[in-house]
Amino acid sequence: MSNKKYIEFIKAQVDDLKNIGFLSKINIVESSVSSKSIIDGKEVIFLCSNNYLGLANHPEMIKAAKDFAEKYGAGIPAGRGVITMSIILELEKKLAEFKGEESALCYPTGYTANIGAIWSLMSEGDTIVSDELNHASIIDGCRLARGTNRIVYGHLDMDDLETKMKNSVKARSKTKTMIITDSVFSMDGDICKLPEMIEIAEKYDAFIFLDEAHASGVLGKTGKGTVEHYNAYGKVEVQMGTLSKAIGTLGGYVAGSEELYYYLHRRSRPFYFSTGFPHPAVCGATLKALEIIRREPERIERLWNNTRYFKKELENLGFNIGISQTPITPIIIGSPEKAQTLSRLLYEKEGIFVQAFSYPIVPKGADRIRTIVNANHTREELDYVLGSLENLGKDLEII
Ligand SMILES: Cc1ncc(COP(=O)(O)O)c(C=O)c1O
Q1: C or N terminus of the chain, fewer CB within 10 Å?
Q2: Which residues in the chain land under pLDDT 70?
Q3: For position 22, what pLDDT does the model report?
Q4: What is the pLDDT of residues 197-222, one digit of tens each?
Q5: Alpha-carbon torsion angle 126, 129, 132, 133, nearest 10
Q6: Sign of the dihedral defined by the CA atoms of residues 222, 225, 231, 237, in that order
Q7: Nearest CA to ligand 1 atom 15
Q8: Coil, strand, or helix at residue 137?
Q9: Which domains does the chain have, with CATH numbers?
Q10: What is the distance between the alpha carbons of residues 163 and 144, in angstroms, rounded to a whole number?
């Protein structure tokens, strides 16, 4: 390597990352993921995985993955602009049923589903109205939608949303407007106010795009997500989802009308120009996961029983858990050093893996560890975690 400018650029960037502590050690998982896992050679309670329903290592899913790989192969022969595999069509049909929509189109990941759908749906002159705490993949999708007007409203602030919609009525009168939000916010665990958003969208001529990454499989009696939670069927135009959280596999999808499916199939560049779709093993495991969710609604019940118990006990101990309404429960500490120390001691002394977050991922002064319980955590495991948190919380003067 001899290009001086390139070498200087990379070196300066890495130095910067070191200085802000962004090159901390990567934790290596050496087993499947459940309530416990082997991380860096040590068995620990895994308290921050997105494996909400405990499906990621389900034996029936592993068998389905093997069976599908044997029958259909290990990879995908060509992109979907050229061919499609029958098992992907079957998966899309089942995902549409799961979400209560006419169609679902698979993408390689949830991230590409967001950028692919936002970018294709919104053209020059259109307006995107977005919650200030939306996920990075939404923000990046908006950036790619060149020539659009962007309006950001305060987090969950429906008065601010209404004011901004009202003030922009004239400017938006000849073009489309999309209100876009995370359904469950990934750092705070709070839920979007869908009924109010629907009213505002209807009043000010907009359509709604929901990012259901942390809601599908979690919200609603049968895990269909936010639309089921609020009984808002038929009121949301676009639902994006990921397979990498409650479903326990990998991939993304966009669910909605039949027309949406055909349009994205031909016009969404990250869809059309990529071969990276759920491969046969993932299709097999995902189809099985959807069957298990239908067959065993008690998994969702277990997730919520664990969530309610854990939140109540944390509050009883005096921890600040913010405004969380879901299994994502932050413990807000407000000091980057204490958040890092708590995470480190939980891991080193107590065998509990949970990550700390500081600025710029969360606002300054909102440093935290972010806990996520799942359906597989036992009451004994949760009580052990609560005991450890109590002791360390007192030692570090957090409670
Ligand atoms: C709210 C939200 N949207 C989208 C994504 C991207 O999904 P995926 O991991 O499937 O790319 C994530 C992942 O962390 C997320 O939290």
Answers
A1: N
A2: none
A3: 73
A4: 999 999 999 999 999 999 999 999 99
A5: -100
A6: negative
A7: 213
A8: helix
A9: 17-46+297-395 (3.90.1150.10), 59-295 (3.40.640.10)
A10: 26
